[in-house]
Amino acid sequence: MFGFESAAECYHRVTCKFPSMKHGADPTATKKKRREYFTKSLPHVSNIYELKRDSGGNAEAHGKGTYGTVVLGRHRVDKTNRVAVKVFKKDASDDWEYLAKREIDAVTKLKDHQNIIQIIGVYQFAACDVCMVMEFADYNLYELLSPEYNSKMWSDRQIKCIIKQLCTGVQYCHQNGIMHRDLKPENVLVTAPSGHVKLADFGMSHEHLPTAKYMRYTNHVTTQYYRAPELFLGAEFYDEAVDVWSLGCIIAEIVLGGVLFKGDVDNNPHQMELIWALCGTPITDEWPVELHKNVAQSYARSKVRRTFSKETLGATRSCASVELVDLLDRMLQIVPGKRISARGGASGPPAGVLDHPYFLTEKPLPMDPGMMIFRRVIPPAAQQPAVSQSKK
Ligand SMILES: Nc1ncnc2c1ncn2[C@@H]1O[C@H](COP(=O)(O)OP(=O)(O)O)[C@@H](O)[C@H]1O
Ligand SMILES: [Mg+2]
Question: How much is the pLDDT for 385?
Fold first, then answer.
């Protein structure tokens, strides 16, 4: 598309010359080189895109997180071409280049999938901040599930369509060796009126290949409500099953119209109690040694796992069908190895999420995303709160 060649070319230069940051590498060794590259080589975003400004003339924040700000814009020549620009602020963290690179690398690796937000280019913002230009999406799922929107009016086919796209995006990440590690409604974007779902915010993502069974990762990932039990128990050798847990929580939230495990903010014990109450406590015999078995043991007390039903979930909506509840039951297993895989195919058993009868045979079948026709009911509320973890 017009004007994109230069952006793509610019991005190509960045990815080719940017010093690599393999897991375990010393961040300071390449820091200076990276900073020099970012500050000297990138064209300014305002040369190509007109950014939305507030009354004071400053770029207006559309979404704001701990390490970056998202600003909306449009191409200076092709004005119908709307974009979102994520600005990684130099003063947000000592590791801002590392975080920027991690996100840029992940979305580049996952490029060209309809359920992953598409990167358009990498530019400079203001004097030295770096920014990533992405395709624009109208909503995030948090907004759509809030009372201002009529998500309660969605048909079962529409809900199934959203859930299927969500699972397809996660499947693509896992098939390409990327754990997202921060799946939550705010990071799931939806286009209007078509209703295409796009996973976004790969700032916490990490490479995870099936061969890398004993890679050590930080467990300070994923926003509290969506964090898998093994992370609360301090596991460091986890895998992409942490995303499947988050996915289960998001799907349950769509069905219930509220957060499934709404623990008190920053209160891990309370969050864990809610999980044990619904899903049972860890069973010592089944808990893998590498996932802090000794810690898990201390929770292995009375509560035995029950199979989910509509009643145990507290679901009243018609979309909480028998098959959907069964799918949730398989996603929200306490023992990560027992959780259904999002990859599907070769990595089973059990067969992957998208092989479940909920998508394949249960009527009604999911609507085609192009047919969704979402409309904004009233303007979105101000920015939503996010109980976010550190992105180290
Ligand atoms: N491509 C996009 N189009 C429209 N809005 C976006 C886009 N990317 C992000 N946003 C909005 O900005 C918010 C913050 O972006 P995100 O990438 O999640 O950054 P953070 O790391 O700060 O959480 C999102 O929740 C979403 O509402
Ligand atoms: Mg986010």
Answer: 47
> 80 in helix, strand or coil?
coil
- Residue 272's contacts (CB-CB under 8 Å, 6 or more residues apart) are 229, 232, 263, 299
**What pLDDT does 5 receive?**
34
* 182 a catalytic residue: yes
Question: pLDDT for 226-253, tens place per residue?
Answer: 999 999 988 888 999 999 999 999 999 9
Distance 189 CA to ligand 2 centre (A): 10
> Nearest 5°: phi and psi at 3?
80, -10
Two structure tokens written together for 380: 């979105």
CATH number for region 7-135: 3.30.200.20
| Tokens encoding 256 | 């219930």
Residues framing ligand 1 (Cβ under 6 A): 62-63, 65, 67-68, 70, 84, 86, 117, 134, 136-137, 140, 186-187, 189, 200-201, 203
Q: Which CATH number fits domain 139-382: 3.40.1570.10, 1.10.510.10, 3.10.129.10, 1.10.645.10?
A: 1.10.510.10
Band (pLDDT 50/70/90 cuts) for residue 98 is confident
- Rounded to whole angstroms, how far apart are CA atoms 223 and 391? 11
Q: How do residues 185-209 score in pLDDT, each as one tens digit? A: 999 999 988 899 999 999 999 999 8
Indicate if the pLDDT at residue 11 is higher than 70: no
* Cα distance between residue 375 and residue 26, in whole Å: 48
- How far apart CA 188 and CA 181 sit, in angstroms, is 13
Q: Where are the alpha helices (DSSP H) in the chain?
A: 4-17, 27-41, 96-109, 141-145, 156-175, 229-232, 241-256, 268-279, 293-299, 310-313, 322-331, 357-360
What is d(CA 190, CA 153) in angstroms, rounded to the nearest whole number?
Answer: 17
Q: Cα of 264 to ligand 2 centre, how many Å?
A: 20
How do the domains of the chain map onto residue ranges? 7-135, 139-382
pTM beyond 0.90: no
Beta carbons within 10 angstroms of residue 149's beta carbon: 18
The residue annotated as part of the active site, out of 129, 138, 156, 182, is 182
Q: What angle do CA 213, 216, 221 make, to 5 degrees?
A: 110
Query: Does residue 339 register a pLDDT over 90?
Result: yes
